[in-house]
Amino acid sequence: MLTSAKKIGNKVLLKVHENIADMKTGEEFKAALMELYNKGEKEIVLDFGNINLITSHGIGKILMFYKRFKEVGGNIYVAPMRGSMREIFETLMLDNIIPEINIGD
C-alpha cells in the first residue's frame, strides 16, 4: 500500500510509504489525494518521512491538488522533512508554497 490516511483534528495526515518514482506510484498517489478531495477533506498533511525520492510523477500531483484544495478553501501541508526529500522540495522551491507543519503521529 503506497499511502495511509489518518484524521487528526480537522486535518488528514497522508503518510507515503514508498518512493513515488514512476507512473504506477504516481497514479496511486493521485488516487489517494483524489479520494480525500472527493470526501470533502480540505486540510491535507503529506508525510514523506518514510521515503527518500519523489520524481515528477509525484511532484505534478502535489501541485495539481495544491491548486484544487486552494480553490475550495483548503490547503496542503507537508510534515517536517529531512534528507533528500527536504533537498528536493527546496531545490524545486516547493517549500515556498507548501507550508511545513507538525501535527504529530
Q: Outline, from the CA principal axes?
A: globular
Low-confidence stretches: none
Radius of gyration: 12 Å
CATH domain topology: Transcription Regulator spoIIAA
The number of helical segments is 3
**CATH class placement:** Alpha Beta
Helix content: 25-40%
Q: Total strand count, please?
A: 4
Strand content is 15-25%
Distance between the termini: 18 Å
Q: How is the largest sheet built, in terms of strand order?
A: 1-2-3-4
CATH architecture: 2-Layer Sandwich
SSE class: alpha/beta
What's the order of the H and E elements?
Answer: EEHEHEH
CATH homologous superfamily assignment: STAS domain
Largest sheet features: 4 strands, mixed
Attribute tags:
alpha/beta; Transcription Regulator spoIIAA; 20% strand; 105 residues; 4 strands
Reconstruct the topology from this structure:
Blueprint lengths: L2 E6 L2 E6 L6 H16 L4 E5 L8 H16 L3 E4 L4 H9 L14
Parallel strand pairs: 2-3, 3-4
Antiparallel strand pairs: 1-2
Helix pairs in contact: 1-2
Task: Provide a descriptive summary of the structure in words.
This protein is α/β, with parallel strands linked by helices. The protein has one domain (3-96): Transcription Regulator spoIIAA. It contains three helices and four strands; from the N terminus they run ββαβαβα. It has helices at residues 23-38, 56-71, 83-91, and strands at 3-8, 11-16, 43-47, 75-78. A four-stranded mixed sheet has the order 1-2-3-4. Strand 3 (43-47), helix 2 and strand 4 form a beta-alpha-beta unit. Helix 1 (23-38) runs parallel beside helix 2. The longest helix is centred in the N-terminal third of the chain and has 16 residues, at 23-38. The radius of gyration is 12 Å and the shape is globular. The two termini are 18 Å apart.
